[in-house]
């Protein structure tokens, strides 16, 4: 290489301009100019370096935990910041790049990350997430990796309902995507053009006063509107596994809760705890602290329907349990804004008929084929 070529002669210009002929606009045509020259036919185009989620995981393996607390956004659907929040308005970018993950190197990662429906995706301190856009309303989903946990409550847990909460080992062999919040009124309206809720002061409030059958009808319409998300309700086992988020205490926050953490009737605390605020209504999703896996309001605010029929637990070890084959009542979990502290425990189980509606009942979406699916009753 000559000294002149190694040093460079001007800066490169490409693409032609409004004053040039067709020859200059060819893909291969090259021009040059001095770095300080300015002309009314010269501009520029920005480029951004793409950092894949796989690269983030590879780098994180060699970093202290404190340095791993960073967001990786592969598509600019929302601003960089703490854990993703629901966003209203504006179209999302639709990913078209090949899968950046390597299931061979990380066998518990989803094989379809990012999914074709994801308008944004990334990784933060809680793990992998993807966002689904429905008419400008976003719902964030978090990846829940497969694992083993103790479902139900231990014998020493205060105020447990022993005959309904028999503790047993559960293995979930498949990971799944779970919404980081209960379904909002905004998302419900985007799909159904209606709103059955009692507390309509904020579109980010959870939708409530919906039955199990209402939730199934909503899910069917959502799956028609959005290609291939495989939306569904979580199984009861999936729900408790995600609620506990690796904890074994009565709540994912520890041995007790306060109204600053959970929306419940603070006049009736759990296990001798201090009394606190009773809001007498729902609060917007993501307005209270998340659990260790980045899931909001798993305790309190609204009861959440699960896919299962209600029935007694089998005390032996279970793998991917989906509940009884038939029954009279469907499972509700999590407690609500009008419930006491006891009913917001991770292990607490409630049941209602598939057509029952109350102002404390909503649901949270899961994605994927895991679980036994049934048509509305």
Task: Please write out the topology.
Layout: H1 3-7, E1 11-14, E2 30-33, H2 53-60, E3 72-73, E4 118-124, E5 127-134, E6 137-144, E7 147-151, E8 168-172, E9 176-179, H3 185-192, H4 212-225, E10 231-232, H5 236-244, E11 303-309, E12 318-319, E13 330-333, E14 350-352, E15 361-363, E16 366-367
Parallel strand pairs: 8-12, 11-15
Antiparallel strand pairs: 1-2, 3-4, 4-5, 5-6, 6-9, 7-8, 9-16, 10-16, 11-13, 13-14
Query: How many DSSP helices?
Result: 5
Note the beta-strand portion.
Answer: 15-25%
What fold name stands as the CATH topology of the largest domain? Answer: paralog of FGE (formylglycine-generating enzyme)
Overall mean pLDDT stands at: 85
Number of E-state strands: 16
Q: What spatial order of strands do you see in the largest sheet?
A: 3-4-5-6-9-16-10
Topology as a string of helices (H) and strands (E):
HEEHEEEEEEEHHEHEEEEEE
**CATH class descriptor of the largest domain:** Alpha Beta
Radius of gyration: 25 Å
Described by the principal axes of the CA atoms, the overall outline is: elongated
Low-confidence blocks of residues: 49-83, 86-106
Which percent range fits the helix content?
10-25%
Please characterize this protein's 3D structure:
By secondary structure, the protein is of the alpha+beta class. The protein has two domains: 1-45, no CATH class; 146-367, paralog of FGE (formylglycine-generating enzyme) (Alpha-Beta Complex), CATH 3.90.1580. The chain is 12% helix and 19% strand. It has a seven-stranded antiparallel beta sheet. Strand 5 (127-134) and strand 6 (137-144) form a beta hairpin. The longest helix is centred in the middle third of the chain and has 14 residues, at 212-225. It is elongated and about 85 Å long. It starts with a helix and ends in a 10-residue tail after the last strand. Residues 49-83 and 86-106 have low confidence and may be disordered.
